[in-house]
């Protein structure tokens, strides 16, 4: 099952058992602006921690299990996440789920965001009644997350490409040696607020040398923006993806070399 799902797919399954729609915007947006019918609120800041998790900004398995369980999410559920920022915050939830053992085939990003949804679909201001669930979370040691030494080894590896998903100014101010720049927003279609067409995405990725034949190592500053790029590449069928959770925050803290332009 594709990680990227369109609004029509979601609309048909809002009341379906085993599908849990998760809104990761701030609580005031969920309550005051409205949300997808039946969606539960799991704000972005609730599943991020600078010092409690296994790496980077991960929240820790126990804390994440409690958070998702309180929202009524089970590990066997299909999770559909959305935000109002082209999916970048929602993608971070999905990657966090995967890193804690949620089956990838049951993780989905709404293609588009709340603004795009609300133009065509029904919205609600009523929070659903959900029963607390038992969410089993355990950090996956052999998942896509990689450490700093693996990233360093990829610098001179002809079979790998390191991808910096930040803005041009950030990239020019300092990036990991050999990295190519691919601002995550370059993958977004402004009109639909979701991803560009598959053909457009593949053309852009090939132009930057980010091809499926290579191992793609993703980083940004705190592993938020790479989450969106990770989901986009999974959607396109990329298999060998490395997710550098520590990103530039850790790289700089450890005194590793940076290239400036």
From TrEMBL:
SMART domains: RHOD. GO terms for molecular function: transferase activity. The keyword Amino-acid biosynthesis does not apply. Keywords: Repeat, Transferase. Its EC number is 2.8.1.-. The keyword Transferase applies. PROSITE patterns: RHODANESE_3. Residues 15-122, 156-260 form the Rhodanese domain. This is Sulfurtransferase. The lineage of its organism: Archaea, Methanobacteriati, Methanobacteriota, Stenosarchaea group, Halobacteria.
